[in-house]
Design brief:
- By secondary structure, this protein is α+β, with helices and mostly antiparallel strands.
- The chain has 2 helices and 6 strands; from the N terminus they run H-E-E-H-E-E-E-E.
- The longest helix has 21 residues.
- The chain is globular.
- The N and C termini lie far apart (35 Å).
């Protein structure tokens, strides 16, 4: 089986554009964080992309849910721009679920 070790130049460009667009459009920068891509040693790892964000700290559940959905949409766009990747998307200890039609979403229970 083929093991990917690097993103293509086109994939890198697409991912950067997606992240820039979502970071610029994130409306809760004052109480949350924009998406950050991790640096990692590609020679020491099979990871080709890693990053995170921090959801807003607020008492308003709707704000938190809005931010969660926003960043899951970002990850969906990123995931669709990377071919043949294995993903691990999670919020703390809860894994997100991939759906071909809708993309990343949190489990309902």
């Amino acid at each position: 089986m083929y093991e990917r070790l690097y993103l293509t130049i086109l994939e890198n460009q697409e991912i950067t554009a997606i992240i820039d667009r979502y970071n610029a459009g994130f409306e809760m920068k004052d109480i949350g964080e924009t998406f950050c891509v991790y640096d990692y040693d590609q020679d020491e790892s099979t990871v080709i992309f890693a990053g995170s964000t921090k959801l807003p700290i607020t008492d308003d559940f709707e704000d938190t849910m809005h931010a969660l959905i926003y960043w899951l949409n970002c990850l969906t766009d990123i995931g669709r721009s990377i071919s043949n990747g294995d993903w691990h998307v999670h919020l703390d200890d809860t894994d997100a679920i991939w759906d071909e039609e809708t993309g990343w979403q949190m489990p309902e229970d």
